[in-house]
Amino acid sequence: MLDKIQEFASEFFVTGDPLILGAQVSIAIAMVAIVFVLTYFRKWVWLWREWLTTVDHKRIGIMYIICSILMLFRGGVDALLMRLQLAVPNAEFLHPEHYNQIFTTHGVIMILFMAMPLMFGLFNVIMPLQIGARDVAYPFLNALSFWLFFFGAMLFNVSFIIGGSPDAGWLAYPPLSGLEHSPGVGQNFYIWGIQISGIGSLATGINFIVTILKMRAPGMTLMKMPMFTWSVFSSCIIIIFAFPILTVTLALLFLDRFLGAHFFTLDGGGNPMMYINLIWMWGHPEVYIVILPAFGIFSEIVATFSKKTLFGYKSMVFAMLIISVLSFFTWVHHFFTMGSGADVNVFFAITTMAIAIPTGAKVFNWLFTMYRGRIKFTTPMLWTIAFIPCFVIGGMTGVLLSVAPADFQFHNSYFLIAHFHQVLIGGVAFGYFAGLYYWWPKMFGFKLNEHLGKWAFWLWNIGFYVCFMPQYFLGLDGMTRRVSTYDFDMGWGSLNMVSTVGGFLMGIGFIFQVWQIAYSIKHHEKDVTGDPWDGRTLEWSIPSPAPVYNFAVTPHVEHVDDWWETKQKRAAAGAAKEPRPVYEPIHMPKNSAIPFVKSALWFFVGFGFVWDWMWMAIPALIGVGICMLARSFTYDDDYYIQVDEIERTEAALRGVKA
Ligand code: HEM
Ligand SMILES: [Cu+2]
């Protein structure tokens, strides 16, 4: 009996690695500490009522952002472990198998569980405020999306202490990810973790498109929408076309592994190339899903801190929409070397190069917006200014990679690694950081400390170039990606050492950011204006943090930078008193426990399928069904905020007595 338990435990838990043992112990300690703190301060009820069951888009957004910062930490630790291993030739710090797991989890976590939730967090907190809405179109679905993301990410993350991590790369190509070559449970965790959170992302895409199309304040025509809202819209268009492909691809891979189907095997009539095409039909649009909102953020920040309207509004909108369409026609550039033939390669080389045109137009628009502007070098603006050269270089190396014959040389080398990190860090990560710094006061009602923020900015930026510039040369010298070590004779040692130093500079930059947040929470420089940057769009017209109902009175929009125009008009009219607003009762959605419970059940469905434990998966699936029925028969799901309560809240927020 004891033997059996021991045997099970050694298969169930990952054992034998001191790094992982340390992580297991610290996770256990952290969990006990959290439970203790919540119990000691009697916060369980508060947590449940205010957060876990909330359908308020602002709170959901904040939860997304907290998760993504934790995931940035995990993905960053993975990155630094790899950089340590690669710092010197013939290092024995990580075993090759462990290295495979780490680059796989790093890639998946950074893109799907760091960039995506940071993006969804900003979408949630800001977009409804920018269009003058009270919430998103489907608040319940929004909560469900978040919890599906959360439990999917959890399922993926537990694999490193339970069962073993996936190790077939971030896109899990078969045959490597098939049952024959990956018999463990790691690949199952990959499939179910991504599948569950992916459904949440698809729902968000639908939800936000409907919100933008149906919930704009009166007067806000499409061409008067703020640029960030446009970027949310284009990104969601890509989501609703791309994510179903991912869902189907992972489902087929699951059938191959679970039922021995032959979709992606060479025998039995399948073909692994099919998978590679499908996964990139999602994968390439995916990188545009995350970059477009960064473009939107930069557009807002450039206009605000140059004190000018964005240059070329229309061309910006068209550029964004063209990119969302083109992004679906470039996927083959990820495998020029895999035998599609010259004609096919030429087509995809040209479509890839074509994307540089609208992107270049946007860069000129930002530059012209800054031209002769009164630029203020705040932290959000610094990230924006640093992004431009970084993204331009990263984009140009992308054009080099798109030259199909040349790609036979660059393919799978460190040249590629440097390229995509340059656009993912210099574009996506810097963009979301800029957005986080910019909208932080709107979310929490106080500013982040600028001094520490500048330290973080310089560390990240210098660290970035020190880390990734040497990798272009390593790639040209023949160093391929996904190798866990290299021989002294290759002569790659010194450049790799430099690269590792750069990686750690970024790590220190991250520590500064955490310090900055902690410091700013402690010192709490309250922003009473609601508009600390002298902003241009509607989110700045209401107090920070925004009340539950966002706008006490729905605004009427006339201009592109409507709030800016309103401020100019008010200034011109002198200190004339604003007429007292007339409030009406506000219709709001009620909180619900179903999104949390249902997504938690999905976690068990996934966990059951990962281990082939039908006794767990099937009851959990039935539970999911019951949740759906329960929701269908919930009639009491809304309430009204009465006028006297609005009056009291507004008076308190604006610091006057009612
Ligand atoms: C913070 C600094 C970062 C460092 C030092 C870093 C470092 C690395 C390293 C060493 C690899 C493995 C290279 C190999 O052996 O093939 C890698 C792969 C990768 N990284 Fe990063 N990374 C960073 C940030 C990011 C970010 C922000 C993203 C995405 C938003 C990202 C996405 C990826 C992806 C997709 C892979 C490929 C994984 C695979 O081969 O399956 N990384 N990174
Ligand atoms: Cu691509």
Report on this structure.
The protein has 658 residues and is an all-alpha fold. Among the domains are: 16-51; 57-270, Cytochrome c oxidase-like, subunit I domain (Cytochrome C Oxidase, Chain A), CATH 1.20.210. Helix content is 68%, strand content 1%. The protein has helices at residues 2-12, 18-40, 44-52, 57-86, 96-130, 139-158, 186-214, 227-259, 272-306, 313-326, 342-370, 379-402, 404-410, 414-444, 450-476, 493-523, 562-572, 594-611, 614-632, 643-653; strands at 586-589, 638-641. The relative contact order is 0.10. The model has no long low-confidence stretch (mean pLDDT 94). The structure holds protoporphyrin IX containing FE (HEM) and copper (II) ion. Residues 284, 330, 333-334 line the site of copper (II) ion (CU).
**Which structural class do you get from the secondary structure elements?**
mainly alpha
CATH-derived architecture of the domain at 57-270: Up-down Bundle
Number of strands: 2
In what range is the share of β-strand residues?
Answer: under 5%
Q: Main sheet: which strands, in order across? A: 1-2
Q: Report on the biggest sheet.
A: 2 strands, antiparallel
CATH superfamily of the domain at 57-270: Cytochrome c oxidase-like, subunit I domain
Can you identify the CATH class of the domain at 57-270?
Mainly Alpha
Q: Give the SSE order as H and E letters.
A: HHHHHHHHHHHHHHHHHEHHEH
Distinct small-molecule ligands in the complex = protoporphyrin IX containing FE, copper (II) ion
* Number of alpha- plus pi-helical segments: 20
Helix percentage range: 55-70%
Distance between the termini: 71 Å
What's the alpha carbon Rg, rounded to whole Å? 25 Å
Summed over residues and divided by their number, the pLDDT gives a mean of 94
Shape: globular
pLDDT below 50 for ≥5 consecutive residues: which ranges? none
CATH topology term of the domain at 57-270: Cytochrome C Oxidase, Chain A
